[in-house]
Amino acid sequence: MKGKVIGVTSRFKSRVVWVAALLFVLVTAFGFAAGWQPLAASTQWTLAPVFDPTGLFGGYEKERTDGGYFVLIDERGTVLDQTSMYVYRGDEFIAENNIRYRVKTVDGDVARCVTIGPEEPVAAIEATESVPAAVFGGGAATNKPTVGIYHTHGGESYVPTQGVESVQGKGGISDVAKTLESKLNSMGIKAITDDTSHVPNDSGSYRRSRRTAANLMKQGANYLIDVHRDAAPASQYSARVNGKDVAKIRLVVGRQNPQESAALDLAKRIKDHLDKDHPGLSKGIFMGRGAYNQDLSPNAMLIEVGSEKTSLAQAKAGVDLFAEELPKIIGAGTAGATKVGTRTGQGGSWKALGWIIGAFIVGGAGYLLISSGSIKGAAGKLKQFGGSEWSSFFGRRGRGGGRDDDDSDSGGA
């Protein structure tokens, strides 16, 4: 009898340990992979990554400061793009001519790409994707969109005008953001700018600017625009559009982002409108490793307005034309305006769930490996859990449907 009691106690302890371990791994994985972020002025909630132990949300969001550039080339050696943003294998680029490429290798400053093919336009959206103007703006609308503007790298400046690439505090990019705000307000779109500094300009800048973006959402911003300028030769970003010397606009989409599909959809819509109304203004779309705070909203975007070698006047002229297209996309004052961030947003939720499940699996594997001390031991524990421990936890059922636990005595006490 004593042996049976000891056996029951041992199995009970084993079950408790397994359940505690699984709960620990689940809670830890969920906490590190995602957090519940409240949407501004709403009772809804959205799943958004908040911690980044693996460097997926922040560790890759950095730029070169040595004066060099990454050069993206295709299979024939043709230069596709030049940028100071760090480029990694798997990054993608939709060029000005709407051909999509993927980075295959990065050797020093050279990123060799393979051609994926033409990118399907999304500007001509099906009728099922449009809504009456009264929903977003125009007429007696009451739910006009609000655009929140900020700049993660607020010190970025323009050498031809200001003599320096960057300053401590508010650089030329702050003036560009103000130009964007003023233009949007003049067209009836409420725009608010937050000039909060996020120095220094390093991989942690986006973690610091995340609070700024969240505060803009609390103020009612339905759309977020993070305004930057790239660092590249002037020829990469200089253009003459509609008779004006302007800086080209490049859109950036984060790949490590549950909202990636929605962010890319929005970027493609913007590019399509720019190509139609202001040919030559768009520099393309870069899909880089990182999140760039776009996980906060399916309507968050990052724009690069020129490079450090374009003038401030060119940058202002470029962002002014960019602003002209936004009402057609976000729906303010435009009949039959297109809904943005809804068709692909659901995909982002499934991706977020995938991140949680993936983190859970990795966390569980790590726990087994550490607790057992070897891969063989971890495999043994996993096999034990899948067999005897799992069945013991729920109890085996006899042929008659009742429990047939090992610790029950069929002959009585």
Write the SSE topology.
Elements: H1 2-33, E1 35-38, E2 45-48, E3 70-73, E4 79-83, E5 92-94, E6 99-107, E7 110-118, H2 133-136, E8 146-150, H3 159-162, H4 172-186, E9 190-194, H5 205-218, E10 223-230, H6 234-237, E11 238-241, E12 244-247, E13 249-254, H7 260-277, E14 282-288, E15 300-307, H8 312-330, H9 345-372, H10 375-394
Biggest sheet, in brief?
A: 11 strands, mixed
The coarse silhouette is globular
Rg over CA atoms: 27 Å
| Uncertain stretches | 30-57, 124-142, 333-349, 396-413
Q: With helices defined by DSSP (H or I, 4 residues minimum), what is the helix count?
A: 10
Secondary-structure class: alpha/beta
CATH class descriptor of the largest domain: Alpha Beta
N-to-C SSE string, H for helix and E for strand: HEEEEEEEHEHHEHEHEEEHEEHHH
CATH topology of the largest domain: Aminopeptidase
How many domains comprise the coordinates? 2
Percent of residues in β-strands: 15-25%
CATH-scheme architecture of the largest domain: 3-Layer(aba) Sandwich
> Distance N terminus to C terminus?
9 Å
Mean pLDDT: 77
Which strand order spans the largest sheet, edge to edge or round the barrel? 4-3-7-6-5-14-13-15-10-8-9
Helix content percent band: 25-40%
CATH H-level name of the largest domain... which superfamily? Zn-dependent exopeptidases
What's the total count of β strands?
15
Provide a compact summary of the structure.
The protein has 413 residues and is of the alpha/beta class. The chain has 10 helices and 15 strands. It has helices at 2-33, 133-136, 159-162, 172-186, 205-218, 234-237, 260-277, 312-330, 345-372, 375-394; strands spanning 35-38, 45-48, 70-73, 79-83, 92-94, 99-107, 110-118, 146-150, 190-194, 223-230, 238-241, 244-247, 249-254, 282-288, 300-307.
